[in-house]
Design brief:
single chain, 10% strand, six-stranded mixed β-sheet, 592 residues, alpha/beta, 18 helices, four-stranded antiparallel β-sheet
Length: 592
């Protein structure tokens, strides 16, 4: 019963096919559920019509005309089906496939950031991207094929029953025999799909990892690549073992199944020949059609049982894909009652804030910090202290577990989160450059004219990038899709990320180690530009290099999610606490 409950995933898969391709659905139904059964019925009746015409003494011309009429119907349906398939089906399937991929991507964007901490969700996301469209289309085709098979079965059954009931009994007996032999095989096939799911996931993971450029260096410079390939070999070995076990299990059903169809055909033929031997030649045409009808009935019944196997396998895939769409989000979905994002320079406050990641011992408890409008604040500390977590909470990528994060004195959860983020400029240490044009990369927050972009490029020292682009703002900043693209160095990529913050005005700037890829002199020069920009907004900077925060209004030293000391650079140096130790140690490293 548990497996049958999974059949609910078939409507889940078929629904988007109807949503994005109503004409395609109706066309395919017309072809498979109406035209093809009619063609099959006419094909079965053709031998009877032709032979009856001969045995009744009809002139050859009439017999040929009869054959011609039946053949014309069959050919007409075939041509019409081909035209419908070529004109509608091919284009529609592509359109539906692209629409379904868009649905997956839209769902991903609208899913709360917390799910990306869960590897299982990422697997579901990747799986949905790759297979949602194909399995949705497979589910639809299987259901339509079922309708076509049932229609043909009813038509063939009616032809046989109307002429010779004994043949129906013979066919029914073989159907029962086929069911008895196929049911264990069908169950084994469904079990096989479930057993292979884990193996297939890992094989796909290895393939995906090898495709990602950020993994390429590590896979080659360490033993990671060899370990991954060894794990791949072990997994594929298990995969083959499962397949061998499956085929051994079902092999005992192959022999009787291979006997059934020829035996059925021979028995029906012998039954018909007996009537002819008795001298009832008037029914030769009828029995010729009955032979064809029983053969087609058997084929349709065989397809029907194949449908059971296929449909259960598709439900397993539908279940995996549906889990991705079932992820419930509380942050990203639009909220009609949300407050519009405020204009102007922001104040920020963490008020008795508590937060922790799922499946992690790290946590922040009763955290308090206030940033006045226009203030420049630096948050420093060792890796894992919780600095970057604070920026994620300010962007409301996560919701706090207790207390509140306030913008302009109001809980951040009251605001339209998407509008609020457009007022918060963020530059990450781990820069992600879009495989798009230089213009697109510079205007992710706000559009700008060519003159404005050129001024930003000059201000951020990006002339080298513009020169690589031949002065063209529309050259792609990647060679992923074109050999004419521009490849950026790490420092250039960070400058591009920072340049985005100069195409508009923001209430709050969040800078997460924005100059880590630069040498000390270039970093110093860029920090002067950043400090100049910070005069137009409240600025919070996450820093590991303490030399970059000397001119900030106040510095908070965070450790294990708590503020352990705060003050200006000079005050913290004078206090000779942990900040002093970090600064002195980093200074020694620079000197060395």
């Amino acid at each position: 019963m548990k497996k049958f409950k999974k059949l609910r995933y078939i409507p889940f898969l078929i629904k988007p096919i109807w949503k994005h391709g109503k004409v395609y659905v109706l066309t395919f139904l017309l072809m498979q559920a109406v035209l093809n059964p009619i063609a099959s019925t006419v094909s079965v009746l053709l031998p009877k019509a032709a032979i009856d015409s001969v045995t009744n003494g009809s002139p050859p011309a009439r017999t040929l005309a009869t054959i011609g009429v039946y053949t014309a119907i069959i050919l007409g349906i075939s041509v019409l089906s081909q035209i419908l398939s070529f004109v509608v089906q091919n284009v529609a399937q592509t359109k539906i496939s692209l629409a379904l991929q868009l649905e997956v991507n839209e769902k991903a964007i609208a899913t709360d950031f917390k799910y990306y901490d869960n590897p299982e969700f990422f697997t579901q996301f990747t799986y949905a991207q790759q297979y949602y469209a194909s399995y949705a289309n497979s589910a639809f085709m299987q259901v339509v094929q079922l309708i076509s098979d049932v229609t043909s079965i009813l038509a063939m059954g009616a032809i046989i029953a109307s002429a010779e009931r004994t043949l129906i009994l013979i066919s029914a007996a073989f159907v029962v025999l086929t069911v008895i032999m196929r049911l264990p095989q069908t169950k084994a096939s469904v079990d096989l799909s479930e057993k292979l799911t884990g193996q297939i996931r890992f094989v796909n993971y290895v393939s995906r990892s090898l495709q990602q450029k950020e993994n390429a260096a590590e896979l080659r410079s360490s033993g990671a690549g060899a370990k991954m390939l060894n794990a791949y070999k072990n997994t594929t070995g298990k995969y083959i073992d499962i397949l061998v076990s499956y085929y051994k299990k079902i092999s005992k059903f192959y022999l009787p199944q291979s006997i059934v169809s020829p035996l059925q055909g021979s028995i029906i033929l012998a039954y018909i020949v007996l009537f002819i031997i008795k001298g009832d030649t008037s029914k030769i045409g009828l029995y010729a059609s009955l032979t064809a009808a029983t053969s087609m009935l058997t084929a349709n019944l065989s397809q029907l049982f194949m449908f059971v196997t296929e449909i259960f396998q598709i439900t397993l895939q539908g279940e995996k894909i549906s889990k991705f769409f079932e992820a419930e989000s509380t942050i990203e979905p639009p909220d009609p009652n949300a407050v519009p994002a405020p204009d102007g320079i922001y104040s920020v406050e963490f008020s008795d804030m508590s937060f922790g990641y799922e499946n992690s011992i790290f946590g922040i408890k009763d955290f308090n910090l206030t940033v006045q409008p226009g203030q420049r604040v630096a948050i420093v500390g060792e890796n894992g202290a919780g600095k970057s977590t604070l920026t994620k909470l300010l962007l409301r990528l996560y919701d706090v577990a207790g207390g509140a994060v306030l913008i302009n004195g109001r809980d951040i959860r009251d605001y339209d989160v998407h509008a609020l983020r457009r007022h918060i400029g963020i530059a990450y240490q781990d820069v992600r450059i879009l495989a798009m044009s230089l213009r697109d990369n510079l205007t992710v927050y706000n559009d700008a004219t060519d003159e404005e972009l050129l001024r930003v490029i000059d201000r951020l020292g990006l002339q080298s990038v513009l020169e690589k682009a031949g002065g063209n703002l529309d050259v792609q900043i990647s060679r992923e899709f074109t050999e004419d693209g521009v490849v950026l160095s790490g420092g250039e990529a960070q400058r591009v990320a920072l340049a985005r913050l100069f195409t508009g005005t923001f209430g709050l700037l969040l800078l997460d180690e924005p100059s880590s890829a630069l040498d000390p002199l270039a970093e110093y020069n860029l920090m002067q530009v950043i400090l100049d920009k910070s005069n137009t907004a409240t600025t919070i900077m996450i820093a590991h290099r303490l030399s970059t925060v000397r001119n900030f209004d106040i510095i908070y030293h965070v450790e294990n999610g708590e503020i352990i000391e705060s003050g200006t650079h000079d005050e913290l140096i004078a206090a000779q606490g942990k900040y002093y130790e970090m600064f002195t140690r980093q200074g020694e490293n620079y000197n060395n």
